[in-house]
Amino acid sequence: MNPSHESLAPRIDRRVALRWISAAAATPALGGISFAAETPVAAHGYGPDPDMTKAYQPGELWPLTFSEAQRKQIVALCDILLPATDAAPGAVAVGVPDFIDEWISSPYPGQVGDRKLLLKGLAWLDEEARRRGAGDFVSLKAGDQLDVCQRLAIPAKRTPKEYPGSFFLRLRDLVAGGYYTTPDGMRDLGYRGNVPSIEWTGPPAEVLEKLGLSPQA
Amino acid sequence: MPVVSPKEVQPNYDIVIVGSGAAGGQVAYVLAMEGAKVLVLEAGRMFDPARETAMFQTPDQAPLRGEKTPDKQYGFHDCSIASGWDIPGEPYTNASKEEKRQFAWWRQRMLGGRTNHWGRVSLRNGPHDFKTRTRLGVGFDWPISYDDLAPWYDKAEMLAGIFGAAEGMENSPDSSPGVLLPPPKFRAAELLARDRAKAKLGLSVVPIHRAILTQKQDADRVPAKLHPGNAKAQRLLAENMRMRAQCFFATDCHRGCSIGAAFDSATVLLRPALNSGNLDILPNAMAREVTVNADGKATGVTYIDKVDGSEHHASGRIVVLAASSQESVRLLLNSKSSRFPDGLANSSGLVGKYLTDSVSSGFSAQVPALEDLPPHNEDGTVGQQAYIPWSFCQEQLAGKLDFPGGYKLLVSGGRRLPDLNAATKFDWLSEREGIAFGADLREDARRYYGSIVGIGAQGAMVPNDDCFAELDPEMKDQWGIPALRFHWKWADAELKQIAHQQEMMGAILDAMGGRYRRPPEIQNPIKAVKDGGSVIHEVGGAIMGADPAKSVTDAWSRTWDVPNLIVADGATFPNTADKNPTLTILALAWRAADHLVEEMKRGNL
Lengths: 217, 605
Description:
The complex is a heterodimer.
Chain A: H1 3-7, H2 14-25, H3 68-81, H4 96-104, H5 109-131, H6 142-158, H7 165-180, H8 183-189, H9 205-211
Chain B: E1 13-18, H1 22-33, E2 38-41, H2 49-52, E3 83-84, E4 93-94, E5 107-108, H3 132-136, H4 146-160, H5 188-201, E6 206-207, H6 222-226, H7 231-243, H8 265-275, E7 279-282, E8 285-292, E9 298-305, E10 311-321, H9 325-334, E11 359-366, E12 386-388, H10 393-397, E13 407-413, H11 439-448, E14 452-459, E15 468-476, E16 482-487, H12 492-511, E17 565-567, H13 582-602
Parallel strand pairs in B: 1-2, 1-10, 2-7, 4-16, 10-17
Antiparallel strand pairs in B: 3-5, 6-12, 8-9, 9-10, 11-14, 12-13, 13-14, 15-16
Helix pairs in contact in B: 1-8, 1-13, 4-13, 5-12, 7-8
């Protein structure tokens, strides 16, 4: 990581990230499976006049509802969908599992469908793991976890509205969206804005050159 | 004078204004600077853009990554509170059940109204836009010409602070020399669009005009131009101009602007007006009715104090409606008396009629030339920077096109602050069998991010008999005030325009080498047209005209029936143009206010 990358980091709540990492590392093979209730979320939203300037944490406005087993599963899936690289942290380290939990626990109607879809999909992954002889998805060997995802990725592209491809597509979209909306994710994407500047001079010469365009007057 | 509660409202004002947005703010500014005692009623709460706006907050600091919810219908960090198309307790209805005949009504319940979350696009209507009946035989002529309004466009632009360039294009007027601030440099996608559209289609991509300070306003010279002979107004305006900072080229104007670089009513209009000592602002006041006396003159406004539900009355010699076009219509229709049984200022029967909105559709493509560009900051003046003005006026005049309304094209692209979908729509671009994840996802995201170019078309709508608002016979809001019922139907002329928009946008993106999953919607334009009200450019309902039998107000925005009642907002527009309405609202409101001042000085009001 380069120094400027580090300078963007403190906005993330590292305590949350570390909690997830330790939870993932300490995963024992569990026999029992528990799921967040599929009942609608009863919590309230933030209302029509929230403090827009405040930085919010998942779980602050409404309770998170993943079971421990589901959290571990999401952490494992985040590690597959967006693992860390030499240059950038992975989805888990920037708090994406918490974001997914916040999303499916949201009291708003837009998230209700995702809640059903994701919880159903997570259960399906455990069933698939049992078909492959493991207790649950988290207990599957890394290679098998990857294989399950690679197989799901194909219907997710070909028939994106059909389950379980629809589940995998939505999960991938939420993980990617959760990741690239963090300062670390933005940096990895190549976003360089959101900093005040005295002047705006347009794209640099190397960009214009690549596009074959002449400099602006 | 200050922000007041119902108890602190003075027994009498010169002017009572309903609404604190572009129109209400502008009228309050002019009248307070001229020494009149002004009361502004605002249905929402006070709002301080300097303290309450979210500017550098990233989406991960918002709940749900800042995505839209019923509580925040433009997203969490958007500068809208207690606002939206659907507000609990404030219903409206649509007469038709048909999907494509719905009108959605945005309300902005906060000090400054819609100027808080506006994109700041500030284009003048052109000469043709005021004379569509004479020129093309459709719609109405305004009772004023472009030349009549041009001086107030200059004034409104100098006060607001607007960037842009002079292009010399037909029906897209230039400002007077020295009025506009310099436009920002184009982004890569905008430069590419300019190059390809010119080379392959002969279309001009030019800098748009927006109410953003790309440099500090000239506080030493502008105030004397705007307030000749009024030393106090000059001093107050100069002070306010010096408090506004130059744009720092980051964060979306829709979030509001804590440094005052982007225009909003509270920062630019209401703050100096308050400092004059002549303005009271009463927040949380929901206007119910304009009251009249036995002579048929307006006497003030009855309102509900939303804090405790109690009803009160504010008295004034002159009443100005600036509540947003349809809210002003609703107020007129709800102001019934034995003298005005069909609502106030409605002897023509035209209050509520001729509701129009921008004729709008969009199209986007992925442009390979923009893939994998070296990462660089493309925030600029976040939002629109480039557009294509309508350039087929002569073809239209010659009858070569099958629709009368022109449209502008807003070109947008670039490496914007990522939102939840910034990296999730790229799977169709790769040959891979499955959706991307892991290293593939990172690779696709970096490669394609910033390579999507979107074009939005916004066109002129001809007023028609199928688009109007009336009172719903049963529905009332939470305060018992009758709600509006909308009627909406896109006419053939507008759908033909949409087909033309789609074809044109496809041609431009083709010229840029764009790839898209579905072709433009040329055959079935009803699928592409955005719903009425969704662009939030609705105007009309109390149109101005030269004939009292065929219009609601005269050329000075004064209602024909009630001489001391002014409609200052977009309700007086006889039609939409292909230009965004706000700048014209500001110019018309200022012109109406100047006329009021003259009439007051003459003793006529």
